[in-house]
Amino acid sequence: MKLRDYHTHNRRCGHALGEIEDYIKAAIDKDLKEIGISDHFPLGAVIDDPQLAEFIKKASMEVEEFPRYIKEIKGLKEKYKDKISIRISTEVNFYTPGRALSRQKEVLKPFMDDMDYIIGAIHDIKWHESPVIVMYPNEEILREYGGDKIILEYFNKLIKLVDSNFFDVIAHFDFYRILFRPNNPEYSQYLWQKLLDLLDKIKSRGLAIEINTSGFLKKLGSQHPDDEIIKEIIQRNIPLVLGSDAHRPKYVGYMFQETIEKLRKLGLSHLCIYEKREQKLEKILYLF
Ligand SMILES: [Zn+2]
Ligand SMILES: [Zn+2]
């Protein structure tokens, strides 16, 4: 069965390589049915500290670039319409203060009709006595604040993301795992219950969760989210989309078939697709 890759980046964000067109060509080469272009939404919409200008350049495109980004995807959608279906999206970094989201919405507003789906993502956390904790291997941070506290704050932020009612898809659900590398976090009963409650909330709000295969590339030993969490997601019939989070054209569709084959054994039967922010379920036909 032909699959769809809903999470890809390109050179605009400052830390990926290749043009959007290179990712589209890679998707055609890999015989994918659809590719979603979902580069990082401009951090500059929220952060205007000149001291962070260099960091921002390496994290996402500039605000002024966003209209050109959308225009380019539209042009390519037309150019490749006989070869592959192309979806328009962006991965928005979620910030806790409400004002940040309203600024992001302001920049997105003229393009809302173009969006097929909007990805919400958490890449860092902070609580009052902590520094900004970026999800990156960091033993010192892990020791100082403790894995439980970090996961708890991540979940608390994810609850706010879900409650914002703005996003369609949640990116890399257990992104915090990268902090624990080469180990995997162990969930206390309290944290696991918190996670299950969060999944119930996601189900009731109708959001989709992403199966993000970049977890393999990051040497986490599995996709995001890990198998144990995916089992709970499948049990609740929460829609799942598939994405590679490719930052290089060669990683488009990375590990898709192996991952789907594995998740089939955990009960996965459908994947979710989006067009103009409308969600549909598609049965997986296991005829690779
Ligand atoms: Zn990135
Ligand atoms: Zn991300």
Summarize the structure.
The chain has 288 residues and is of the alpha/beta class.
Notes on the protein architecture:
With about 290 residues, the protein is an alpha/beta fold. The model has no long low-confidence stretch (mean pLDDT about 95). It has 11 helices and 11 strands. It has one domain: Metal-dependent hydrolases (TIM Barrel, Alpha-Beta Barrel). Strand 5 and strand 6 form a beta hairpin. Strands 1-2-3-4-7-8-9 form a 7-stranded parallel β-sheet. The chain has a two-stranded antiparallel sheet with strand order 5-6. The structure holds zinc ion (ZN) (2 copies).
Order of helices and strands: EHEHHEHEEEHHEHHEHHEHEE
Assign the structural class, choosing from mainly alpha, mainly beta, alpha/beta, alpha+beta, or little secondary structure: alpha/beta
Number of domains: 1
Distance between the termini: 5 Å
Q: What's the number of helices?
A: 11
Adjacency order of strands in the biggest sheet: 1-2-3-4-7-8-9
CATH-defined topology: TIM Barrel
Strand content: 15-25%
Mind telling me the CATH class? Alpha Beta
Low-pLDDT stretches: none
Listed once per kind, the bound small molecules are: zinc ion
Shape-level CATH architecture: Alpha-Beta Barrel
Number of beta strands: 11
- The helix content is 25-40%
The CATH superfamily is Metal-dependent hydrolases
Shape: globular
Determine Rg (CA atoms, Å). Answer: 18 Å
- Compute the average pLDDT: 95
Largest sheet: 7 strands, parallel
